[in-house]
Amino acid sequence: MNETKKRTVRIGGASGFWGDSSVGAPQLVAGGRIDYLVFDYLAELTMSILGAARLKKPELGYATDFVTVAMKSVLGDVVAKGIRVVSNAGGVNPQGCADALRALAAEQGIEVKIAVVTGDDVMPLLPRLRATAPPIRELQSGMPLPAKVVTANAYLGAMPIKAALDAGAQIVITGRCVDSAVTLGILMHEFGWKADDYDRLAGGSLAGHIIECGCQATGGLHTDWQDVPDWAHIGYPIVECEADGGFIVTKPEGTGGLVAPQVVAEQMLYEIGDPETYLLPDVVCDFTQVEITQAGSQRVRVQRARGRAPTDSYKVCATYADGFKTSAQLTLVGFDAAAKARRTGEAILERVGELLRARGLAGFSRINLEILGAESGYGPHAQAMALATREAILRLTACHTHKAALELLAREIASAGTSFAPGTTGAGGRAGASPLIRQYAFLLGKSQVRPKVYLDGRALDLVDADSPPPPPRPAPDATVAEAAPSTWREPANAVTVPLIRLAWARSGDKGNTSNIGVIARKPEWLELLRSQLTPDRVAQYLAHLVRGPVARYELPGIHAFNFVCENALDGGGMASLRNDALGKEMAQILLSMPVSVPAGTTGMSLALGASFPERTEGRP
């Protein structure tokens, strides 16, 4: 039954990925005063790992930590307190996850109603899709559907979750759905939102987006990390959601971390593209006018998300195998450590290349040699003192169609310990070769996908979830920064400072695309940033990493820009050979970009190499 009389619904986000800390669920259940507990476990890479696990053992294929760690520790309290749970821990085997949870409940003597959402697995459709015209094409690269697909799952929306809760489920386990749907489904159930309440759906989706990455909403990965207290006891996020789509972000009392407008703004920009056209299965969101304000100690209000009708397609994420890869590391210590590491790596690759030719094998299809500790990610912007480091890590990564070629490389790396540079150490065990899994995203008409919900084995009627969406309204023109020319002019007394003095930033990934959200520390600095952080200049500064175009979008509601960098992650995910395959470093590197400001703008020393930015107050 929908409880539309509720003024607010408190939802705690206990997990941001499969592997997140085990403290989230107990912390929220014990001290969060929550109505719902949600878990997000899935990423594209996770789906391929789960698919491989199910091939080996049919009863697996789900995020086992959800059952054996999280729910084992809180199931009794969750049921006793009337807290309901929604999780996408089902992966590629949601029914298997539910069976394991039922076994746990029986072991603990607890009765609980469990619903399972299926229908996201589109592998059975692939033979027919290969024969259709026009052929399936990958969204970013345009390549045709690969021959050997490992997994293929549609990103479902919130309607099946709503249906499960409407039917009385206490715990809902899904397969692949968009991360924010676990929260939106709850709010549609609680407030009785309809499929065409687009502004409310956008607000609920934003609430889910804020908490889907766990502590990133409460100080994790914050630009001003030194201002975030008590990392060891950081609080997991809670959203207090209201019927109009607005919400408060907070955390359990007495926990560490920081809930502040700039922290929430960083998370809002995390892993999105055009903020005016953020595509989800239930709604197309417009976040450009969102306002984020302090609403008390460790409380931030978020409002003014807008929405419009969704498209008639689901995004499908498939994965496929493309040969093998290995990655190995050595530590070099002493004078000129970085130079020694580079020469060591080049010598190893030269030797192994000759051995491969002697054995009639082709050379490596891709190679990446990185010197960690010498600012290799900064490319031409690396500081001279970093190159003079006395401790560096050589990281060698390579791909090949034959596993034996990579095993040869792994074996030869160890020889550097006695053959090459003094101070070579830290080889550890021999690196193994693993399948190289690539992502492949495409669109599939919603009419071809049929979500299903089972409550304790009984199929539910999903009229709303199966019905086609209303015709989509045309999207407005993208709010690119070039549409708002800058009025800022460089003064005669300009000095140079790193961007971090003027902005907060966070970066994320979607396949081979990286986005970098940049938020002005003060609203009046937005004009200055608009004039200097042009797409061309950002592309030039990151040219050693970004191989495709860079687009800039503006979010005037929080005085921010979002830069979307294509072909930026060397393939992204497991396909990338970089140490940073997920673009986590991109914002940190961009924050080192020199910008010109009037002398005295930041009120402190303006040396480019200073360690920390000025502390500033004010809302994004």
UniProtKB/TrEMBL annotation:
InterPro entries: AtuA-like_ferredoxin_dom (IPR056362), AtuA_N (IPR010839). It comes from the Bacteria. Residues 497-595 form the AtuA-like ferredoxin-fold domain. Transmembrane segments: none annotated. Signal peptide: none annotated. Residues 9-454 form the Acyclic terpene utilisation N-terminal domain. Pfam families: AtuA (PF07287), AtuA_ferredoxin (PF23544). This is Acyclic terpene utilization AtuA family protein. The lineage of its organism: Bacteria, Pseudomonadati, Pseudomonadota, Betaproteobacteria, Burkholderiales.
